[in-house]
Design brief:
The protein has a domain of 227 residues: FAD/NAD(P)-binding domain. Helices cover 35% and strands 28% of the residues. It contains 11 helices and 20 strands. Strands 5, 6, 12, 13, 14, 15, 16, 17 and 20 form a 9-stranded mixed β-sheet that branches. The radius of gyration is 21 Å and the shape is globular. Bound molecules: flavin-adenine dinucleotide. Flavin-adenine dinucleotide (FAD) binds next to helix 1, strand 3, strand 12 and helix 8.
């Protein structure tokens, strides 16, 4: 007999892990299924991610409400200033959270720490079973249940949530089409030590090759995300650390003094991928499985966490049987459309504007940046997006713990 759960979440990454935490208070049996082997709490083991993730204030509030922030807060750094500039052109935009009476524009959190903290948090909930390692390799979809097959015993569930990433096995297996636009860009990500004081500033610099972001880490260290055309990224990934550091320094300039001590570099090919459906019968797609965005502006996970907040509210309230839940899931999916579309449009346009070589557009960009520095109203639009868009009134995003009906 397959093990039976009320809800099975496939994918124990940022999104699946957070959703499991948000549902933990429910009197339901929940399985969180992850293909990677378990990592230990001290950071050793299978899960390796050198990135730091920029979390919007609303996302931070949500982790606070879930009781996860206690573990990650001490490893986080508040972003207090934003500096956007265009190398070799006039115009820069500077924003300081003190001018907006805000604690910061968001927080930098080590990706690895976030995932391990979610796993640790889930250990305290008996109704959640973390099934790991278990790679889902087949699905049987019935009118009243879904059966998952993998390397172990089959798993049966009333509701399946696919949080299995960009190349979602579940989305593909169920034949849910996705629209994909390849950017032909790769993000090179890593950490670097700097001479100067970053003053908790996030720098977005538009270089000839592509946008380069430097994000504040503890001490005199910064994380970098350098978005480049695929061929240039391939060439730079093949260089020695010394050579790469030199290129990075030339692209960024000397605003933070000399760069030294570069960490491991990782490369991420970039595309925009949007699933044509996010709810199909007893299956809900969420996170990168539903939409994968360009990393410019650090919107993707923050957007997915707004999905998590809304979806967990739908699942936490009401006990209206299979018909009622499917209506509410459809309402959830259509209710999320406008936030998702707006965020996709914003990152897509931002990427286009800041990578185009069109002489008119790139000149306008310089003027635009100079104007942004001078027009508080436009600053406020950027502020809204970086702090987490109050487009959702979900309790978790307001910092209220989940409540079960
Ligand atoms: C360079 C870069 C920088 C970024 N920086 C930011 C940022 O600063 N802020 C921000 O908001 N967003 C950022 N993002 C986006 C962020 O990384 C994504 O939003 C996030 O990873 C999505 O999480 P997820 O859980 O949906 O998917 P994933 O992180 O891909 O997790 C999917 C999980 O599913 C598991 N899985 C897959 N298939 C199976 C299977 N068949 N069976 C069982 N398990 C399976 C995988 O092992 C994995 O653990 C960045 C992205 C990139 C590329």
């Amino acid at each position: 007999m397959p093990r039976h759960y009320d809800i099975a979440i496939v994918g124990g990454g940022f999104v699946g892990g957070t959703l499991a935490c948000a549902l933990a208070a429910m009197p339901r049996r929940i399985a969180l299924i992850e293909s990677r082997p378990v990592s230990s709490a001290n950071g050793t083991g299978a899960y390796r991610d050198e990135r730091s993730i920029a979390l919007a204030l609303a996302s931070k509030r949500m982790f606070d409400a879930l009781g996860v922030w206690e573990q990650i807060g001490s490893h986080s750094i508040a972003i207090q200033k934003i500096h956007i500039s265009d190398r070799g052109r006039f115009g820069a935009m500077r924003m300081d959270c003190r001018n907006h009476e805000s604690e910061g524009f968001g927080y930098m959190v080590p990706a690895e720490k976030l995932v391990l903290s979610l796993q640790e948090h889930l250990r305290h909930h008996e109704n959640i079973q973390c099934i790991q390692p278990y790679k889902v390799s087949d699905i049987e979809s019935h009118a009243d249940r879904v059966i998952l097959h993998g390397e172990g015993e089959p798993i049966q569930t009333d509701l399946l949530i696919a949080a299995d990433g960009t190349h979602s096995f579940i989305r593909n297996k169920l034949g849910i089409p996705a629209n994909e636009k390849k950017y032909h860009q790769t993000a090179i990500v890593g950490n670097v030590s700097v001479d100067g004081d970053h003053q908790f500033t996030a720098y977005e610099r538009f270089t000839r090759q592509g946008p380069l972001t430097l994000l504040p880490h503890a001490g005199n260290n910064c994380g970098f995300v350098w978005v480049l055309p695929d061929s240039i990224a391939r060439e730079l990934m093949a260089r020695t650390d010394e050579d790469f550091l030199l290129q990075l320094q030339q692209a960024f300039g000397y605003r933070l003094g000399y760069f030294s001590k570069i960490g491991k570099r990782s490369a991420f090919p970039l595309s925009l991928l949007v699933s044509q459906r996010r709810v199909q019968e007893r299956v809900v797609l969420i996170g990168n499985a539903a939409q994968t965005l360009h990393p410019i502006g650090a919107q993707s996970l923050n957007l997915a966490l707004r999905d998590v907040a809304e979806l967990s509210e739908v699942l936490n309230t009401g006990d209206d049987g299979p018909d009622g839940i499917s209506e509410r899931l459809c309402a959830y999916a259509s209710g999320r459309q406008s936030d998702i579309k707006r965020t996709i449009r914003l990152t897509d346009i931002f990427n286009f504007l800041f990578t185009t070589n069109d002489p008119v557009l790139s000149r306008t960009r310089g003027i635009g940046l100079a104007m942004l520095g001078a027009i508080p109203l436009l600053e406020n639009i950027i502020l809204r997006q970086s702090t987490g868009v109050p487009s959702s009134v979900a309790n978790l995003l307001q910092g209220n713990p989940p409540q079960s009906a």
